[in-house]
Fold this protein.
Amino acid sequence: MTDATALPTIDPALGARELFVDFDGGHTWVAVVGDEAAERASGALPLLALHGGPGACHDYLESLAAVSATGRRVIFYDQQGCGNSDQPDDPARWTVDFYVREVDAVRRALGLDRVHILGQSWGGMLLMEYLVTRPEGVVSATIASSPASMPRWVAETGRQRAALPPEVIATLDRHEAAGTWDDPEYEAAVNVFYERHLCRVVPMPEFAARTFAKLTRNPQVYRTMNGPTEFHVVGTLRNWEILSRLAVVDEPVLLTSGRHDEATPLQIAAIRERLPQADWVIFEQSAHLAHAEEPERYMAVLADFLARAETGRALGRGDVSAAAGQRPPSSAGRGRLTGRPGPA
């Protein structure tokens, strides 16, 4: 583990400590918000954040740093292949197993023996993969807007795509047939989908836009594992699913999603059925980035769950019956959006 100095890599206002973790011949960039001594004094436990993509980076999760106000550290890192971490030109390197082992490497390097983990989108997929390895010391898991089956994801985003204006669909069809993913006309058509189902705040918050700018500069991991867009999944994850393996997860779980999310209620309900201990909260104003779209409401829900998990008031699998998995989700109500809402 080595210190990273003078890197313009995270909002300076967060006062983060930046460092690199050595992993598998490369370097994984990490940022720690909050003070370990204050954390010990408060009795709170750290939160480790797993970003999405695959191949995005931590920036769009920076609003989660607000949880440090509850006395805990919030730890971000960029998975190798993106952001501030090493980005070798090596598509074969980007596998689920590689990224699961990277989670362990970060935990070991920072001494995160007892930790909460939040995974957003692909980060939640990665978190589920990590949980089924039965790691020790995970006090709670928050799975935010994540699918557990890519075939289901493709079916649901396909349904959402089919509801776009006809002229937008025609543009998408034309460029997808030609393979012209980088054409500005195609990108503009994709953005119509994104303003409905990815982030309904228009324009999206600066820290989220930062992530997408970095992803545009180096899309190798995203295109290798996912494909060219959220709804055109042709990468190595195209047949991925984990629903059949979730029965071993016994930690307290929080599921979050947006009312307009590309991770639709059908997809989240399938996870809830297999994790009957999970709380599930829907954010009424949001799409896929509820933590950035309705941050105040999201942080309140998250902070409450983390506190309950630390004090034994959030339930594990052994505390509930399988029938609990049929409970309807809770509504977070209508939180305040951080900007002008996009189309519903």
About this structure: Residues 2-8 have pLDDT under 50 and may be disordered. The longest helix spans residues 295-310. Residues 9 and 84 are 7 Å apart (CA to CA).
